[in-house]
Amino acid sequence: MAPLKQDGPLVLVPTMGALHEGHLDLVRLGSQLGQVVVTVFVNPTQFGPNEDFGSYPRTLERDLELLSQLPVAGVFSPDTSEIYGAGLEVTVQPGHRGLGLCGGDRPGHFAGVLTVVAKLFGLIQPDIAIFGRKDAQQCLVIGQMVEDLKMPIQLVDASTRREPDGLAMSSRNRYLSESQRRQALCLSKALQAGKEAIVDGCRSRSEIQNTMLDLLQEADLVEYAEVRQVPGLGDDEIISGRTLLAVAAKVGPARLIDNFVLEINPENMVTDSYLLGTGRES
Ligand code: PAF
Fold first, then answer.
1. Any domain includes 68
2. Whole-Å CA distances, 178 to 85, 134, 163, 181
3. 107 and 139 together in one domain
4. If I label 255, which of 8, 34, 75, 180 is the partner at 20 to 30 A Cα–Cα?
5. What is the CATH classification number for the domain harbouring 115?
6. Is the CB of 116 under 6 A from ligand 1?
7. Is residue 196 part of a domain?
8. pLDDT along the chain (282 residues), means of 10
């Protein structure tokens, strides 16, 4: 990519393309913080052998058209050889935050994510990088990489964009038929039920997880319904402070994830919260 004439902080929005309004929110938020560079790269190393790398939607022309309507300084859409041409000897492995949740269901996934994100950071050298809060564990794993490897980059997690009925926007929603689309609402309903239990005073991790699991049964295959502490992803039975409610399930051909991040303050008030830094809403 040609060097940009720097005008304020350089803000990276890494994506795998198939852009939807959720991605565009990241770009809009980024443009309030500095000059935005969007990367579009379907990263093979973060997909398992039986996952959807081959069928992952690739819509570069449409992505570029959408981005041309926003204040974007540059789009970087490398070939696999540009990113992995030199081979894959040195990789970045996640720490404990990569264990369990999606890390349990998708072995090697976070090593693939961290390795490509580290490469993109090296190539673009952003001051700020923005990630979607829907990939909560990804945000926290990247947060630990940046902290532990002393990368001079400020991370921001942007809130999840939802359809009017609550379904979290995802590039994988396009795999769903109309009836599967309705079935997929069980993810956000499970989170809503978990949140209501907390607002009503429940502080038991296992009870909240069971409440979410009940609603998630409508999916074809439940992967997890978990309550964890933020940012360390600890699993104490009595919850307090910043808390992640996270669910993953298969509906038809799509593996879907969703989460709520909540803050339970010392006065027992429950508010929406964030994962990284000091939080910002898109
Ligand atoms: O969230 C994604 O789209 C991807 O995991 C990312 C961060 C672009 C790395 O490939």
1. yes
2. 41, 22, 14, 5
3. yes
4. 75
5. 3.40.50.620
6. yes
7. yes
8. 70 98 98 98 96 96 98 97 91 97 95 98 98 98 98 97 98 97 98 98 98 98 98 97 98 98 94 84 52
Give the distance (Å) from ligand 1 centre to CA of residue 257: 14
* 13 Cβ contact partners less than 8 Å away, ≥ 6 residues apart: 23, 26, 27, 30, 36, 37, 38, 39, 129, 130
65 residue type, one letter: E
Q: Is 96 a catalytic residue?
A: no
How far does Cα 172 stand from its chain's mean position? 13
CA of 98 to the centre of ligand 1 (A): 15
CB count in 10 Å sphere of residue 272: 12
Tell me, yes or no, whether 176 lies in a domain. Answer: yes
Rg (CA), the chain: 18
Residue 278 lies in a domain: no
Residue where one domain finishes, among candidates 103, 135, 158: 158
For the chain, what is the domain count? 2
Measured in residues, the chain has a length of: 282
**Structure confidence at residue 281 (pLDDT):** 54
Q: Are residues 209 and 95 in the same domain?
A: no
User: What is the arrangement of strands in the sheet containing 270-272, beginning at the earlier edge strand?
Assistant: 221-229, 241-251, 254-264, 270-272
Q: Is the CB of 135 under 6 A from ligand 1?
A: yes
Q: Which residue has the tokens 């050889």?
A: 81
Give the span between the Cα atoms of 143 and 139, in whole angstroms.
6
